[in-house]
Amino acid sequence: MVAALSMDIIAASVLPVRSEPVVTDGEVDRELVRQARAGELSAYDDLVRKYQERVYATIYHMTGNHEDASDLAQESFVKAWQALKSFKGDSSFYTWVYRIAVNRTINFLKQRRNRTPHFSLNDLDFSGENDPDLVALVSQNTPRREVGLIELQTRLNEAIQKLSEEHRMVVTMHDIQGIPHDEIAAVMNCNPGTVRSRLHYARQQLQAWLADWVR
Amino acid sequence: MPFENEELTGGFDGLRRLMVLKRREIPPPGFFNNFASKVIFQIEAEELVREEVPWWRRSLGLSTARILAGANLLTLCGLTFVGVSLYLVLSGDVEPPVNAGTGQSLSRSADAAGFGTVAGGVAGRARTSDLSRIFTFSPAAEPSDLNSAGDAPGAGNLISGDAIVAEKEREDARGLFKLGGNRALNAEPVAIPTYRMIFPR
């Protein structure tokens, strides 16, 4: 014990203390943004790879359609590249690109309002069968698990699509993606209090529409 | 997860379990492998297109669609202007344009060139009456008009411009012939000598 301690002391005195700079996520992003603004597409490629899943998921849950989500996510990143010169760095790149995606999605949904949304669940890799929570939930409601899951998913998507764009966005970002209130407020350019009240209202609506499943 | 803290007690526990289902919806395997490449490819393609667009269009932010729309609008305005001008000339509110060099009515010179005109310079009654059904002519613009060269024998033949001017000057000197758009069109039907055909020797 004493020997081990003394060895540590010796090592500490002999070996120089390596002061590795702690690079935070924000600093990495800032550096990538700086390089991308200088025209380096490889840096922007890294940024896209970093946030593609989150941006896609948000758009997908808003539109309920894989093709639309794919197109909108792609457009959002292209638009972000074109507007990169106007990015002042007041917020994080993630918040900024998210805001672009959210605005484009809301515009798209407003244009699509007269059309019936087409859910493309078949295109998605749905692996809910193994979730114990879901298995319990479905077995309570229907005798056949597979049929019950599909029906439940369809009902859930229909209910989410009934919400207004703003309420749907809040539910998607908070309840599905787990983004905190203040970040949602930054993305949606409103107060955290507004986010909370929208969230509460949206949940009430969803609970009423899905009363058969939510007990 | 947000539901696991303060909102959990808000009575939305069942809804929380349902939302798990949404988190399971992910795109087909391999979708994200190509996604970034597609974005970069699209960016490069748009940069190429941008480079081909002239600098003045880029600086003005004009797209092809906008330019086409502007051109269409201009054409429409032009056509409207021409239509209104033509209507005013035909209805006699505006004097027909006069050739500066010869002092000769353009309608008459056009008629002489074999095109025929509608402002009283029409060669032949039939044509005048056809147009009367379409446009409103003042009665004074009917055959007794100064320009009614169609009544003259041999109307439609080419008349030398200098010969007409010379003849007109002679008529003016006699005080029988007064040239003037409105005055001519609105003149009372009086016996006015018709043009004589003067062929250069």
What does this structure look like?
The complex is a heterodimer of chains A (about 220) and B (about 200). Chain A is mainly alpha-helical and about 220 residues long. Chain A has two domains: about 30-115, Rna Polymerase Sigma Factor, Chain: A; about 130-215, Orthogonal Bundle (Arc Repressor Mutant, subunit A), CATH 1.10.10. Chain A has helices at about 1-15, 25-35, 40-65, 65-80, 95-110, 130-140, 145-160, 165-175, 180-190, 190-210; one strand spanning about 125. In chain A, helix 2 (about 25-35) packs across helix 3 (about 40-65) and helix 4 crosses helix 5 (about 95-110). The longest helix of chain A is centred in the first third of the chain and has 23 residues, at about 40-65. Chain A starts with a helix and ends in a 6-residue tail after the last helix. The model of chain A is unreliable at about 1-20 (pLDDT under 50). Chain B has about 200 residues and is an all-alpha fold. Among the domains of chain B are: about 1-50, no CATH class; about 105-185, no CATH class. Helices cover about 50% and strands about 0% of the residues of chain B. Chain B has helices at about 15-25, 30-50, 55-60, 65-90, 105-110, 125-135, 160-175, 180-185; one strand spanning about 25. Classes of the chains: A mainly alpha (about 220), B mainly alpha (about 200). Chains A and B meet through helix 3, helix 4, strand 1, helix 6 and helix 7 of A and helix 1, strand 1 and helix 2 of B.
